[in-house]
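Lecture notes, unit on protein representations.

Consider one protein chain, 651 amino acids long.
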Amino acid sequence: MLLTILAVELFVPAHEQSQTPDEANHLLAGVQYWKYGDFGVNPEHPPLAKLVAALPALGVPSPAPAPFTQFFKMENFGSAIPFLYTHDADAILWRSRAAISVFTFALALLVLAAGCEMFDSMTGLVALLVFVFEPNLLAHGAMITTDMAAACCMFAAVFAFYRWQKHPTAGRVIVCGIALGLALAAKHSGIFLLPVLLALALMEFFSQRKDVSRFGQGRKALRLAIALIAIGVMGWTILWASYEFRYQARPGSLAMIPSLADYTASPHSPLAEAVIPRLAAWHVVPEAYLFGIVDILVAAKRDPMFLLGTDYATGHWFYFPVALLIKSTLGFLALLVFAPFLKNLWRDGKWRAMAYLAIPSLLYLGASMASTMDIGIRHILPVFPFFVLIAAAAAVALARKQPWGKYVAGGLMLAHVASSVLVFPFYLTYANEAWGGPTNTYRLLTDSNADWNQGLRAAKSYLDDHNIRDCWFAHYGWDVDPAYYNIPCKPLPDSLSHYFGQPLPQIPAQLEGTVLVSATEADGDYWGPGDLNPYAQFLHRRPDALIANSILVFHGKFDVSQLSALTHLSQAQQFAGQQQWDKALAEVQVALEMEPGLAEAHAVQGQILLGMHRTGDAQRSFQEALALAHADYPEFQVSRILKIPAQFSAP
């Protein structure tokens, strides 16, 4: 019954939700891996999840490998859009989402099995119940991303190591090695399993030190060391197998743009610049895998953070603990709080099982907190199966402790289930009741925590129900055109297109009528805080309607002169790229007339004037750009204005 409920919870949203930003790219990558072995497509992540998701899409025509002409990410995303949307995108997405959900069902069964073996059958069943109604697992359980695959394989590896410790056999070592290899091939974070398994091995060694002779200690240490080496070698071999045992990312003589050496220099990390070239020279791991490691470093320095209504230029350690408090049900959190204080949960040998749950989850959470890549709770999805088992064990222990305990445990479980059911099918937008519930999530968190472009189908239904045909829409991301869903709205500029220098649609300075604004656009995550965010007025105004908890609807007249100025600035950059200097200058001057304090407009004007050989005027524009950038949110603006030649950047 629980697995049937899980299927409904996964497959209904999989059918109802529009494509999220990474899915088309991941899907095309998987197809290209199967057909051509081109691992230069989406090298940011290892192949496993994409290979599984692509199985139903292998019959869809895809482009043969060709030389890259620009940055590989832009090339990959540009190819993914026509691959998906020139065919039956809805059918392709549905089948591939169903395929990748195999990791969610496998993880559910692993949690059930682990609960039964580590504790008892009641704990296993309760763990499955907690799992089936955990909103974060449901939100990403049928997404074409790498997160659930990583969570499944990492938990499988730890559980396999636990079983080997209970009954050491060669077969159980092999199972653990396979699980490690699959985790490494699922996501780069799988590498954290190495210190996790080492920490568990050390715990096993020191916990029994007093009970055995020195000779016995030596034998145990040797056995642990041999097992860890064997597991590591098997995992490394499977990682190579997932790349067809080939070092080069692209087939034949095709190369990456930029090269690995140039890309390694971009995050300005001395450690990366010292280590990555050696790993590449020795072919320790495949080239595409190394590209992914470097990309993590690049993204960690580039990606902003939005938390509790505040924009930050980069991530901070407190992001994931706060996100957990917001995105987990109150019943689930209460059971986790109870767990350390239930003495009967730590007796009769259960402490070892609890250690196998606590050590991996806390180590992974701690490593994630040290990272500055804070754009979604999905990045700590691997901690959830461990937390689910801790919560289930706490519920059963609480129910057995005192006569009143079963009522408390039952009440917390009921609260967990009810809170999850109420957000169906929009699990991605979940926030618990203490934070205002899912309709308030977008004011606290953004991106894959709240609005990941999943609400386009719901937007179409809303417009049809209200007979709205004349409207404007600021949707998140460039990877899907709302017109595919027959949404009649005219497009407004989006932050990612602006952030990566893509053309923006031209719009007037005044809008009238119905305006739809994606919550992520309103949050200003990639725009910046305060007056850097051209959609700030929509974030701070109560919407007339909220579609799928993620798209804000407004009716009336709106001054969007800042947005309009940005579209003229975009047009100026297009003309400058074509060396049509007079047209470029005219456009940037229109932008500056509308928004004189726009630092990036002054920087663009400087580049244009430099192209026109008006060096003195260019210098004045560059200096004005720098002065404005340093005066208002410099942590955002200084790094985002166009690169200013060194001779013009001095104060």
